[in-house]
Amino acid sequence: MPRAGALVRGTVIVMALACALAYAADSLSVRRRSMHATATNPYETLSATRVLAIPQKGGKIEYQVDEQNPQQSVVCVHALFPHDGHAPCWYVKPRFGQPIPM
Fold it and tell me: Of 3, 57, 58, 100, whose CA is between 20 and 30 Å from 22?
């Protein structure tokens, strides 16, 4: 019967190899789609109005459009993992248009 330490070490090695294989496959997919890129595949540019959430007395929050920088945009990649310095779109889209707390 294998020792607990050997079992844990083997599990960690298998998990690390699985993660490396998933990242490599994801990277190859992004590179292949980059050869025949469209406007939204594999990279997409998202734009939204930049809204500030300003706390007021009594626990209320006032929302204002940022006058100095009213538009914000970000480039994301359609993949499981970040590539070329861009976050995955599945992570960026739910968080992008939310008001910025001050």
Answer: 3
